[in-house]
Amino acid sequence: MRSATPQIVALGGGGFSMEKDSSLLDDFVLSLADVPRPRICFLPTASGDADHYVVRFYRRFSPACDASHVSLFRRDQGTGDVEDDLASHLLSQDLIYVGGGNVVSMLGAWRAHGLDEVLREAWRKGIVLCGPSAGSLCWFEQALSAFHGAPRTVRGLGLLPYSNCVHYDAEPARRAEYHRFVGEGMRTGFAVEDGVALHFCGTRLEQVVSSRPDGHAYLVEPAGEGVMEAQLQAVYLGATGRGGRPTTAAAPGTVSPPVTPSATPSATPAATPPAAGPPPLAPQPAGGEHRLPATPVTPPPPAAPQAAAPQPVAA
Questions:
Q1: Are 315 and 166 in contact (CB under 8 A)?
Q2: Residue 312: strand, helix, or coil
Q3: Fold that domain 7-273+280-293 belongs to in CATH
Q4: Residue 235, by phi and psi: left (phi above 0), alpha (psi -120 to 50) or beta?
Q5: What crossing angle do the helices spanning 103-113 and 115-125 adopt, rounded to 10°?
Q6: What SS3 class is residue 34?
Q7: Calpha distance 232→94 (Å, rounded)
Q8: Among 31, 101, 264, 302, which one has the highest count of C-beta atoms within 10 angstroms of its own C-beta?
Q9: What pairing do the DSSP bridges indicate for beta strands 226-232 and 285-293?
Q10: 245-262 pLDDT, tens per residue?
């Protein structure tokens, strides 16, 4: 039975598109549907609907799910009843899985086709929304994208009133850039390593889960003249067995307490500069806090959006 609580699982990287030997994060996402054979629809928009990405999705999910996909760049928009009514098809799913790639191009295509409003409705209905890389950045109010050029701020759908940075360990330059942007006014937010995911219920961070025993996520917020980075402990999914929620493996203090924003996110981000983030959050630090001085830097001009390339993990 579908939960009435909106849920988002935002992967810093990983899942079937990156983890060849296992996909514990995908197993965790499926467990949230809480039905024997979930209906799951894939949105490969950020990759330009790359064929190889769609094939890998079906190989991963078809054996245990009623799987489908929606294509916005191909004449054949998908399978089954997808072409008849995209909105009805998406709103009938248990999970919607968004692939990685170019988040700027993806958001533009969604807005052109009205899928941004459909996805907001899906979230309100309790359909689980998830995805890695661009499929994580899109749910937040603000995100840091480094696809095709210098890092830049991107405004997402605003379902989660925070900022987001992915591939935090795989691309070290992103850490310095994220600190700079947060120090210059970007909203307080979460940085996530590959193989790690943030699980939100509503707009509250419920838990951090990882397919790696050493995976982490971080809370990054302004602090004085710099920023403060606090490591959030993650539940290792490999300790729970495949395909289930990490209930018994989570010892006291291993999961950060829920994060509650100060206000409900706006459905349409304002055109004015973003307001300060929610009040300071209260994670349980796992590896200490790091206060870093802010270095005055003139941000580069925004890069022009370019066509999506079939590289699903480079949001």
A1: yes
A2: coil
A3: Rossmann fold (3.40.50)
A4: beta
A5: 90
A6: coil
A7: 29
A8: 101
A9: antiparallel
A10: 553 333 323 334 444 443
Yes or no: say if 23 and 211 are a contact pair by the CB < 8 Å rule.
yes
Which residues carry out catalysis? 133, 167
How far is Cα 60 from Cα 240, in angstroms, rounded to an integer? 20
Determine the length of the chain: 315
Structure-model confidence comparison of residues 120 and 150, the more confident one: 120
Residue 272: pLDDT band (50, 70, 90) is very low
The set of residues, in sequence order, having a beta carbon less than 8 Å from that of 184 and lying 6+ positions away, is 294, 297, 299
Q: Is the pLDDT of residue 313 over 60?
A: no
Rounded Cα distance between 199 and 192, Å, is 12
For the chain, how far is it from start to end, CA to CA, in angstroms?
A: 33
At 241, is the pLDDT very low, low, confident or very high (cuts 50, 70, 90)? low
The pTM score is: 0.79
The answer for residues whose C-beta is within 8 angstroms of residue 234's C-beta and 6 or more apart is 196, 208, 209, 210, 215, 216, 217, 254
- How many whole angstroms separate alpha carbon 310 and alpha carbon 68? 19
Environment class of 69 (CB within 10 Å of its CB; exposed 0-12, middle 13-18, buried 19+)? buried
Segments making up each domain of the chain, as ranges: 7-273+280-293
Residue 12, CA distances (Å) to 127, 210, 237, 271 in order: 20, 10, 15, 27
Give 14-67 pLDDT, tens digit per residue: 999 877 655 899 999 999 998 999 999 999 999 999 999 999 999 999 999 999
How far are the Cα atoms of 3, 58, 179, 272, 299 from residue 184, in angstroms, in the given order? 38, 42, 9, 15, 9
> Residue 315's pLDDT is what?
66
The answer to whether residues 137 and 154 touch, using CB atoms and an 8 Å cutoff, is yes
3 near 245, Cβ under 8 Å? no
